[in-house]
Design brief:
Blueprint (H helix, E strand, L loop, with lengths): L7 E2 L31 E7 L11 H15 L3 E5 L3 H11 L3 E5 L13 E4 L3 E10 L19 E9 L5 E9 L5 H17 L6 E6 L8 H8 L3 E2 H4 L2 E2 L20 E5 L4 E7 L15 E6 L5
Helix pairs in contact: 1-2, 3-4
Length: 300
């Protein structure tokens, strides 16, 4: 398929590795990993920060830190934002042999930034997936009809959970516009239409950078009005709150959460955390990854 219209998907065999609590930069620890909750699904949303070749926070400097973070955590699902094709291929190599991903550049094919979904192939098997643009013409590549600063894309995947007897569930990942509130609100409407068209008996997990603060914007209210639950609020345990956009500055305690993991109501959140991992002051991205350990519930 030509680069300007194609989607990207990779296949390779892979291993689930249980993680241990990860020390944060302030000396505390994240909540216990899914290793203490047998069968829990480990989910992460992570704005990777588009790869740049120069400067202190260039991709070459950040890549080893991100590699270590992802190898420590090894989520079963990672909804990513801003990754470039070459960057995503490096992450695929770095995280280990048991991961695959699907995504499309927001300008089509391998062009520009992706909203790619990574997944552990030992735990999850994709059954169906698709991509569309957040516009009045969602099937038109790179379309932008709501005045957003940039075209924005959604990637969704229907997975079979091999660790739960093939239990099926959806993951929807996106990155809303950073300038236009109108575009963000219209994007939520379209995402709602997508979720409404899913099999209503199956759980849904939504990951993304929403570019507005939780509890402080109509976009957040509208996402919850779709019938979704904020895993941060629903978690039985959680780590310290930090602003999830850091701008490569030290994490801000009590800051704004603009990166969210949302689910349908029957999903149980064992714990949620914002990961502040860094090495010698080098953060892997200008966003902090948000994580949650989920129980998707029983077959219905």
């Amino acid at each position: 398929m030509p680069d300007d219209v194609g989607v990207t998907r990779h296949q390779s065999p892979k291993t689930v590795v249980a993680t241990t609590p990860l020390p944060t930069t302030d000396g505390s620890a994240l909540p216990a990993s899914d290793g203490e909750k047998p069968g829990a699904l480990s989910v992460m949303t992570y704005n990777l920060k588009v790869a740049h070749a120069t400067g202190r926070n260039r991709w070459a400097a950040r890549r080893p830190v991100m590699r270590e973070l992802l190898r420590r955590e090894r989520p079963h699902v990672i909804g990513t934002q801003e990754g470039l094709y070459r960057q995503l291929r490096k992450i695929e190599k770095d995280i280990g042999p048991h991961y695959d991903w699907t995504g499309i550049g927001r300008m089509g094919g391998r062009k520009s930034e992706f909203a790619a979904v990574f997944y552990d192939t030992r735990r999850l098997k994709p059954i169906q997936f698709d991509h569309y643009w957040l516009s009045d013409t969602p099937s038109v590549i790179a379309s932008n009809t709501w005045g957003a600063d940039l075209p924005r894309v959604v990637t969704w995947v229907l997975f079979s959970d091999l660790g739960r007897d093939g239990r099926e569930f959806y993951v929807l990942n996106t990155h809303l516009d950073h300038r236009s509130q109108y575009a963000r609100e219209r994007s939520v409407e379209l995402i709602g239409e997508t979720i409404a068209a899913f099999d209503s008996s199956l759980p849904v997990v939504v990951t993304g950078d929403f570019n507005v603060a939780a509890h402080d914007n109509r976009v957040y209210d509208a996402m919850l009005a779709l019938g979704l639950v904020d895993t941060w609020d629903a978690a039985a345990a959680r780590g310290p709150l930090y602003g999830t956009f850091n701008g490569f500055r030290p994490p801000e305690p009590g800051g704004q959460r603009i990166d969210w993991i949302l689910t349908t109501p029957r999903v149980t959140t064992h714990w949620a955390a914002i990961n502040t991992y860094s090495v010698n002051g080098q953060l892997p991205s200008d966003h902090l990854p948000v994580q949650a350990a989920l129980d998707l519930g029983e077959h219905r």
